[in-house]
Design goal:
Elements: E1 2-3, E2 12-15, E3 18-28, E4 36-43, E5 49-55, E6 59-62, E7 66-76, E8 79-83, E9 90-94, E10 110-116, E11 119-124, E12 128-136, E13 149-154, E14 159-163, E15 171-175, E16 181-184
Antiparallel strand pairs: 1-6, 2-3, 2-6, 3-4, 4-5, 7-8, 7-10, 8-9, 10-11, 12-13, 12-15, 13-14, 15-16
Amino acid sequence: MATISDVSRGSFLRFNNELVVVTEYEHRTPGNLRAFYQVKMRNVKSGKFVENRFRAGEAVELVRVEVKDQQYLYKEGDSYVMMDPNTFDQIYVSGELFGDGVKFLKEEMIVRISFDGDNPVYAELPQNVELEITYTEPGVRGDTATKTLKQATLETGAIVNVPLFVNIGERVKIDTTTGAYLERAK
């Protein structure tokens, strides 16, 4: 058995007989009280988030999963077809494993899939992706002094807020965890 101090962001635990992945992990030491760990976890099967406070030194059950890089090929129904770039084996992955970031998934993108045995249990997109803007209202020349944003549709169909100076056909960098515009792609 491992202790809570062995856990980090991205670790898999068995919590209340369910497989969960740690999304946020913070050590706190408030005033005169004992130190504790505030952990936010996502249930792998249901996708629901749960928070728990662990005492320092508390025992937890770490679960070992195999992580593989997979290439996204296409969407078929509610599933996404992934291919192992080394063996060319194809698997079907549920869109629920990607969470809200699935709207930024583009063909031929490399994603990290975690497996418990042969079953995919968690999918992780790259932190940032570069996508092309397919539609947005034209920007007004010289209106770059304020942080006013407008909506833009990306090549994957996702809608994000971008600055006024960004136009159709430009490539932008998007944070997949928050869905926020970061910068124009160079």
